[in-house]
Design brief:
Elements (H helix, E strand, L loop, with lengths): L6 H19 L6 H19 L5 H4 L11
């Protein structure tokens, strides 16, 4: 897998996952939508750690900066 996620993209996903988790555990989110959002936040965390988003690949999207120092 070729990395296709930049630092800002990864940080935004991790932040979104943390916010969803906090809202769930404080009781703000409940029901089926909360389960769907928790699964989505898990996917956000996973893709952030591996720096690869499978949905970016077919569209040729990459938020990773290309340069000599990377």
């Amino acid at each position: 897998m070729k990395k296709n996620m930049g630092t800002i993209d990864r940080l935004v996903r991790i932040l979104a996952a943390i916010i969803i988790a906090v809202l769930y555990y404080t009781g703000v989110l409940s029901g089926t939508i909360s389960i769907i959002l928790l699964v989505l936040s898990g996917i956000f965390i996973l893709t952030s750690f591996i720096s690869f988003c499978p949905l970016y690949y077919p569209f040729g999207i990459s938020t990773k900066k290309t340069g000599v120092n990377q």
